Amino acid sequence: MDILISGLLLGGTYALIAMGLTLQYGVARIMNLANGEVLVIGALTAFLVYTSLAVSPLVTVLVIAPLAFAASWLVYRILLLPLVRRAKNQGQLEVDSILATFGMGFFLVGGMVFIYPELFAYSYLAVPVDLAGTTVAANRLVAFGGAVLIGLALYLWLNRTRAGLAVRAVAVSPLAAGLVGINVEKTSALAFAIGGMITAMGGVLISTFITLDPSFGVIFTMKALIIVIMGGVGDIRGAIVAALILGVVETAVATLIDPGLTLAAAYTIFLLVLLFRPEGLFGRRPA
Amino acid sequence: MMPASLRPLLVAGGLLGLAGFVPLVADGYWLSIAVTILMYVALSTSWALFSGPTHYIALSTGAFFGIGGYLVGLGMSDYDQSFWAMAAIAPFVATGLAALIGWATLRLSGVYFVIFTLGLAEMIRNLISWIQNNFLGSRGLYVLTDLDERHIYWMLLAITAGVFLFGWRLGRSRLGFALRILGNDEEVARHVGINTARTKILMFMTTGFVAALVGAVVAPRYYYIEPNVVFSPELSFIVVIMALLGGTRRLYGPLLGVIPFTLLWEVISVSFPNATTMVLGLTFLLIVYGIPNGITGLLSGFAARRSA
């Protein structure tokens, strides 16, 4: 029961970063391997303003959202759009975007190393709370609550607004979306920016209960990718379920066997998905 | 008159012969740079043989390299095996692992493969550290041989020659032809009856073999092997950068990327150790936005313009 609850709480934050990535890859068609770095930037910002100015991460998360949105939008417009335009096919765009976002990822890590080269963690709401007989730290609960709110807002936006409808249309087929009068480039930029925003917010939330280091981003990228593939690319609902599964499995392996094996556990899941359901949990097999 | 197709072979043979004399004139610092260069030439040339035509960015070099080094250390320290026996076994272990990974991922779209290899070195490192801490006891492994830097250099030179010879033969073989068609259009390749998955898996296995062999051969350089040292994710990225910087369309392309980047890397890690990650990132961006076909692409661009 302990494992289930803390696993689900962890999975909630994983769901956020995976949602960010699935928007970027599923809609904007950019395989963003700098996703984890964006998360760490969010976390590092929260840490710095908390320790130097004593600003609560709950305030930071609101401030960082528009900043991350604007920065991601600019990155898409200036750096990624030229790649989208020059690519002759999806395969070439994938290779180019993988290499370009690797470059950006390393660049960001390099920048963060200059700012803060060590492990960072701070203590925020580290008080025990009793939840259905299990004791959990309040910060994990708050982070989970934040993740649920953001996820819910995203879900409503995608399913209840015109812009959300356009985003879903581009996810299904950029070509057909263009034919019915949707501005595909604009919609892709929007999806990419929202993806970056959600990831950075996830970083702020996760920084309240996890110790990080500027170079940890790639681990989160890896986990987000595994979640996205397990849930099915572009599928928000799938990403959430997959994130919760990964959170529970990781927590189980960390408590029952060894905390050093969480990545191996994630890989085992990944392998099973690749072998048995490469189209994702809820995906349909291509005809 | 000799046939034109043999000329590059003779040139390569001549250069190789010359390269063999390097340890007789260089020592200390420059010899160690030469060893590093050869190591990366072998790694990135064999990387390019697979990733060049298929456009699958393999980030598994660090994992296979680590397996090579680690198995040598493990065999010599804990099981009393000779260096040669372990250096012979390790590449086959890595090839087997590459076959499994290839079988699981290369039948699907390229992204799955990239993602799988991305965390591979880290995952194997975690797994081995765990096994060692819980079941094997000892943490570090010693590789004590009477091989010095010069011997390592010559062994690497032999491996590099082997990789080039293999690449040259591949360009003239059915497998190489299949690989080129597959790289241009996988759909077409399937329709003309090429077993695309098998072709990709076979090529991936060769890169695994070479990386583990190189890892095993340079293991004596470390003396003391620890999973944290030999399983370096950074190595995978450096190999990718060097190969792309040089260009993957020609067999000698990676070579032209390895030499400048090794020297640059050497300067930066000594003078500005904090900036290495940043440089890695900037080089990636430079390649994607500035020279997508690498240095060889630039050169053939100049040549084409001059003759025009």
Automatic annotation (TrEMBL), chain A:
Is Transport one of the keywords UniProt gives this record? yes
Question: Pfam families annotated for this entry?
Answer: BPD_transp_2 (PF02653)
The record, for InterPro entries, names: ABC_transp_permease, BCAA_transport_permease
Q: What kind of membrane protein is this, topologically?
A: Multi-pass membrane protein
Q: What is its main location?
A: membrane
Q: What keywords tag this UniProt record? A: Amino-acid transport, Cell membrane, Membrane, Transmembrane, Transmembrane helix, Transport
Q: Where are the transmembrane segments?
A: 6-26, 38-55, 61-83, 95-117, 137-158, 165-184, 190-212, 224-246, 252-276
Keyword rRNA-binding applies: no
**Subcellular location per the Swiss-Prot or TrEMBL entry:** Cell membrane
The family assignment reads: Belongs to the binding-protein-dependent transport system permease family. LivHM subfamily.
Q: What is this protein called?
A: Branched-chain amino acid ABC transporter permease
Query: What species is given as this protein's source?
Result: Roseibium sediminicola
TrEMBL record, chain B:
Query: Which CDD domains does the entry link to?
Result: TM_PBP1_LivM_like
Where does the UniProt entry say this protein principally localizes? membrane
The record's keywords, sorted A to Z, are: Cell membrane, Membrane, Transmembrane, Transmembrane helix
Subcellular location(s) of the protein: Cell membrane
| Family annotation (InterPro entries) | ABC_transp_permease (IPR001851), LivM-like (IPR043428)
Keyword Metal-binding among UniProt keywords: no
**Membrane topology listed for this record:** Multi-pass membrane protein
Transmembrane ranges?
A: 29-50, 57-77, 83-104, 111-131, 151-170, 201-223, 229-245, 252-272, 278-304
Which domain of life does the protein's organism represent?
Answer: Bacteria
Q: What is this protein called?
A: Branched-chain amino acid ABC transporter permease
**What is the source species?**
Roseibium sediminicola
Q: What is the lineage of its organism?
A: Bacteria, Pseudomonadati, Pseudomonadota, Alphaproteobacteria, Hyphomicrobiales
